[in-house]
Design brief:
CATH architecture of the domain at 225-357: Beta Complex
Structural class: mainly beta
Strand content: over 45%
Organism: Snuella sedimenti
Radius of gyration: 35 Å
Membrane topology: Multi-pass membrane protein
Distance between the termini: 41 Å
Domain TonB-dependent receptor plug: 218-339
Number of helices: 17
CATH topology of the domain at 225-357: Ferric Hydroxamate Uptake Protein, Chain A, domain 1
Shape: globular
CATH class of the domain at 225-357: Mainly Beta
CATH superfamily of the domain at 225-357: TonB-dependent receptor, plug domain
Keywords: Cell outer membrane, Membrane, Transmembrane, Transmembrane beta strand, Transport
Number of strands: 59
Subcellular location: Cell outer membrane
Length: 1114
């Protein structure tokens, strides 16, 4: 126990302090001389991570760790004061001095004793009492902050609620310092109240790598990773964490969805360091994920993409992207595509705190990429294309066509020129609210959060309403730490009743929106028959929006995460985690009987209804033992042993009905029947997985680093003869700055690292380790028959990726300049591919192992601050990121011929061939249009020119992946003002221009009646001698895909521009009872410059956004 002195004893001690110290010091010298001691406990460095505890507990732990005793007066030292204990390899004297604060002197004596005595207080001539509160940038209170009068040893520390009080000269300067935060100096200038907000120190923020399983020190980590803070995410935008994260790290790519555009109900497709799988139909069942998508981890537990997209980003503390084998090996069979670890803000002890954020976003449809004809142009295009010329000798038909043409021309002369593109669109608004309340005592803390967001898309009627609640409870007593987080979430999503946007793009501009009475009619033109060929029943695309159709999806989910940690000692601890998840998703779709899709349907099948319910339940349990120790100051050892078991069950029931009377509202009770020849549909999948893990990390003298991980996984996803598979990783690192004793003022970090390992991929569905049979509807004398529905592949192997990575990290000139260079090679072998068996079997999508896929690439992250004045809070930082990736297939031979034939018949430009990339665009080379005939000239493989198209001549004509892609950024902070700009660039991508292929050429006789791209009128060949890029305007036959439609594209996108101001230091903010107040404005995807003209957002347009965010803390 600590030796506590009474007041009388303390007085005697103070009186004879000099004499006592003289004796003790001489005794210490004699001990050194006679016993040749080379070190004592006071030169010992200790590692102690207790978090927020009472000072008494901290001193007790130091005594046990360093084997020393303390002498102090319990009348003078408040041992019940809460302090923050988080030290790694730190001298014990500095640790104790920090903990007791500036009011006390800590002196070393002999016999493993530390003497703690009060500082003699200096008085000032013009002394005033200064008080205030200290918090971080988010308004979270900071207990234990040191408040020192500059130039003296006089000071104090903030209490449990972040408050302080000190007597100081009215002209003095106060210095505020705290572990993990940048120190701040403030002149008193006669003020009696000074409230301070400390900013996180960049070097301290990056000190720890959060992997979701264990925390690792950045200095000793051999893996490739990127960590971004809540402030980084909020600086880019306020929509969701995925859209912000893609701007901050070059390896995290969100692929543009050119079909669904900015539809709020469509989940993004994400890649980290390229692809590792072939995504064909059948490779995943209805419950399976994207096999090229990274694994997501929320607060230490696995989760799905939808949860991350809907996550309240105001509660996010940090996100870490783990990229290579050494960093992701902890996740074994699920980590081939990288791991994204999300940590939310933990509740803090102290008085009750309230944080509120409101976000408002305005989105406008981006229609600038559409280049459609106006009314006059469209009618002329139809004339030149032969629409108004009757085939053969048909004078009656020609007479009727002339009448319709003249009537349409008259309408145009009267000014009819309808712009259909803005009819189904709107200015979409999003309003979000986030409220979080936390507080607690030393042993128990709590946090309660609520969030709500109503996002309206840019197509009328499309919206997504999300809501959620979170309860975070933490209990800590001595060696026991228990935490529990309960998430309650849901969403309600609606698709637009206007249908697909392409219907409005193709609507003819010479038709009026409504009739003479202002009513929206079902048809724009009802000349049902002209001659013997033409049908002029033209559906009004607006009409469907007036019906009672709907497409709605609702979800409710519960998730509970329980964690128990027991610290057996400072070096050894055990941890258990239990996660339970339950979710229900219901999708209801109704098409009114008057819907245009039922024009040619019998009466009793007009209208359709579908109701689908998916129930899912999962549990995950793991236990881990960890050992961490520093031996002789040079050897740092970390060892982890972990075991885990999990099960996921998904169940679906779908019921469909057809035939509804006109005017019904979608009640299935009004349906005439179930869908003909159909029955209620069900689906069931159960995934079970187990794994055991061992990992070790060793650091020698903070110079040489070693990581090793081994994990054995078992899963029901693959063949029953291949239930288990090992995964491993080995990493090495070298801290060059420590090796060569580089000047720490110039080089804060210079680390060379490399690793190699095997990762797996389980982003598939259930790949049928057992054959499945279904009952048929026939019965004979032998009984009821069964059909083989799914054929098992019992020998299906696990898909593995051999991941090799090297990199170098550097931080220079007191964090003014930082660099990261990564180079990687990912070899996935074997691949899992679903192929069709011979048609005689009646079986399709049979999973096999075949071929391999190699992804190679490099990443660059550079940051430089030309202005870096932290004292005056003026910082200007320039950033540059880049990623380059190439991928190659091999080992297929002829095993994927059926897939390649399917790609060819569907007019898709991707092929699965050895030595080529999944991003390659295959087409027949074209030499252009013959000026004499207006026909296309092709080039054969033997170099001959021909007018005949032959798919045997197709070769690689481009690659859809950019040569280089990244972000150029500039951020500026001047006092409380912030500005940031992030511009995305893509260079060297080849693109199949669907607008050229579908709306300039390849326009059939039926499609001539639809609106087309202006280039179909102005840029197509018309007369002999015309030099044109496109075939004759009169040709309405099929146009084969050739290299003419593949174009090189370079892009520059205004991904994010933001302005912000922090009002927290204003007096009027404090007078309102607020501890912080910040306003930020954003512009996202505000412009896009491209070297080619393409259509973007075929079924749903893209959007430009302006948004605002207001954050306040109480």
């Amino acid at each position: 126990m600590e030796k506590k002195l009474t007041a009388e004893t303390c007085t005697l001690l103070e009186r004879h302090k000099g004499f006592i110290l003289l004796i003790m010091k001489r005794s210490l010298i004699l001990s050194i001389l006679f016993f040749s001691l080379t070190a004592s406990s006071f030169s010992q460095k200790i590692t102690l991570e207790l978090g927020k505890v009472k000072l008494a507990q901290a001193l007790k732990s130091i005594k046990q760790e360093a084997n020393i005793d303390f002498f102090y007066s319990d009348n003078e030292l408040d041992v019940n004061r809460v302090v923050m204990v988080n030290y790694k390899n730190t001298d014990v004297l500095k640790v104790v001095s920090d903990l007791v604060g500036v009011h006390f002197n800590v002196e070393k004596t002999g016999d493993n004793i530390m003497l703690i005595t009060p500082v003699v207080i200096q008085t000032f001539q013009n002394t005033i009492k200064v008080k205030g509160n200290v918090s971080d940038e988010n308004g979270e209170i900071l207990p234990g902050v040191t408040v020192l009068i500059k130039g003296t040893k006089i000071g104090t520390t903030t209490d449990f609620d972040g408050n302080y009080s000190i007597n100081a000269d009215e002209q003095s300067t106060l210095v505020f310092s705290y572990v993990g935060y940048a120190s701040q100096e403030v002149k008193v200038d006669g003020k009696s109240v000074i409230n301070i907000k400390l900013k996180q120190d960049i070097s301290e923020l990056d000190e720890v790598v959060i992997t979701g399983v264990v925390q690792r020190k950045k200095e000793s980590f051999t893996g490739a990773f990127t960590t971004v803070s809540r402030e980084d995410l909020r600086a880019v935008g306020n929509l969701n964490v995925v859209q912000s994260l893609k701007t901050l790290d070059p390896s995290f790519l969100v692929l543009d969805n050119n079909v669904m555009g900015s539809n709020p109900n469509v989940m993004p497709k994400i890649e980290v360091r390229g692809q590792t799988s072939i995504t064909t139909e059948g490779i995943a069942d209805e419950f399976g994920g994207d096999p090229n998508q990274p694994l997501f981890v929320l607060d230490g537990f696995e989760t799905d993409l939808r949860t991350i997209v809907d996550l309240d980003m105001n509660r996010v503390a940090s996100i870490t992207i783990l990229k290579d084998a050494a960093s992701t090996a902890l996740y074994g069979a699920k980590s081939a595509n990288g791991v994204v670890v999300v940590e939310t803000i933990k509740p803090q002890a102290g008085k009750l705190r309230v944080n509120y954020t409101t976000d408002f976003r305005i989105e406008s449809p981006d229609l600038s990429d559409y280049n459609m004809m106006n009314a006059e142009e469209k009618l002329e295009f139809e004339r030149l294309s032969g629409r108004w010329t009757a085939p053969g000798y048909d004078p009656n038909g020609q007479f009727e066509l002339d009448n319709i043409y003249n009537a349409t021309l008259a309408e145009i002369k009267r000014g009819v020129d309808t712009y259909w593109l803005d009819q189904p669109t709107q200015t979409g608004t999003t309003l979000g609210h986030s409220l979080y309340v936390d507080g607690g005592s030393e042993n128990f803390t709590f946090g309660v959060g609520l969030n709500y967001k109503n996002q309206n898309g840019v197509m009328i009627g499309s919206d997504r309403e999300t809501w959620g609640g979170q309860i975070n409870l933490n209990y800590r007593k001595d060696k026991l730490n228990i935490s529990n987080i309960l998430y309650v979430n849901g969403y309600d999503a609606n698709e637009s009743p206007y249908g697909t946007f392409s219907n409005f793009v193709q609507a003819n501009p010479y038709y009026r929106l409504t009739d003479e009475n202002g009513d929206i009619t079902r048809f724009l033109d009802e000349n049902t028959k002209v001659g013997t060929l033409y049908n002029f029943d033209v559906v009004n695309p607006l009409y469907n929006s007036t019906l009672k159709s709907f497409d709605n999806t609702g979800n409710f989910s519960l998730q509970n995460n329980l964690r128990v940690i027991y610290n057996i000692s400072n070096a050894f601890r055990i941890q258990t985690n239990l996660q339970l998840r339950k979710g229900v998703t219901t999708t209801k779709t109704f098409l009114d009987s008057e819907h245009s899709s039922f024009l040619n349907t019998t009466l009793f099948e007009k209208g359709s209804y579908s109701n689908s319910r998916i129930d899912n339940f999962s549990y995950r349990f793991n236990a881990m033992a960890s050992y961490s120790k520093i031996l002789n100051e040079d050897h740092n050892i970390n060892i982890n042993l972990r075991a885990e078991a999990e099960e996921t069950k998904n169940e679906r029931l779908t019921v469909s009905a057809v035939g509804f009377p006109a005017g019904t509202n979608g009640n299935p009770a009004f349906a005439f029947s179930y869908t003909p020849d159909a029955r209620p549909s069900t689906g069931l999948s159960v995934y079970r997985r187990v794994n055991v893990l061992g990992s070790a990390n060793y650091t020698y003298k903070r110079k040489y680093l070693f990581d090793a991980t081994y994990r054995l996984d078992g899963s029901t996803t693959f063949g029953r003869n291949e239930k288990f598979s090992p995964f491993w990783a080995v990493g090495l690192g070298w801290n060059l700055n420590n090796e060569f004793n580089m000047n720490p003022e110039q080089v804060q970090m210079l680390k060379l690292r490399g690793n190699i390992g095997s990762n797996g991929n389980q982003g598939f569905g259930s790949l049928a380790s057992t054959s499945i049979y279904g009952f048929n509807q026939t019965i004979n004398v032998f009984g009821q028959g069964v059909n083989l529905a799914t054929l098992a592949n019992p020998d299906l192997e696990w898909q593995k990726t051999l991941n090799t990575s090297i990199g170098i990290d550097g931080v220079f000139f007191k964090n003014r300049f930082s660099t990261t260079f990564n180079f990687f090679n990912k070899n996935t072998d074997p691949l899992v591919v679903a192929v069709d068996l011979p048609s005689s079997t009646g079986l399709f999508n049979y999973p096999i192992n075949t071929g391999n896929l190699v992804s190679r690439g490099a990443e660059v992250i550079l940051k430089f601050s030309p202005i870096f004045n932290l004292e005056n809070r003026v910082v200007w930082t320039l950033g540059y990121t880049a990623t380059m990736i190439t991928t190659t297939f091999d080992g297929f031979e002829n095993s994927l011929k059926s897939l390649n034939d399917g790609q060819l018949s569907s007019r898709t430009l991707q092929r699965y061939r050895d030595g080529f990339s999944p991003d390659d665009l295959w087409a027949v080379p074209s030499l252009g249009i013959d000026p004499a005939t207006g026909k296309e000239v092709f080039l054969t493989k033997d170099g001959q020119q021909t007018f005949e198209f032959d798919t045997d001549n197709e070769i690689v004509m481009g690659n859809s992946r950019p040569d280089v892609e990244g972000v150029i950024s500039s951020s500026l902070r001047i006092k409380n003002f912030t500005f940031g700009a992030y511009l995305r660039y893509r260079i060297g991508a080849d693109r199949f221009n669907t607008a050229l292929y579908n709306k300039v050429e390849n326009i059939s006789r039926e499609d001539v009646t639809l609106n087309q791209d202006r280039r179909a009128l102005y840029d197509r060949w018309q007369n002999p001698g015309d030099v044109s890029s496109f075939r004759a305007i009169s040709l309405t036959d099929f146009t084969p895909i050739s290299s003419r439609f593949i174009q090189k594209e370079n892009e520059l996108i205004g991904e994010s521009i933001n302005l912000g101001y922090d009002f927290s230091s204003a007096n009027w903010v404090n007078s309102m009872g607020l501890s912080s107040l910040r306003l930020t404005a954003y512009m996202n995807d505000i412009f896009r410059l491209s070297s080619i003209q393409v259509e973007r957002g075929i079924s749903y347009p893209f959007a430009r956004a302006v948004s605002f965010s207001l954050n306040a803390s109480f």
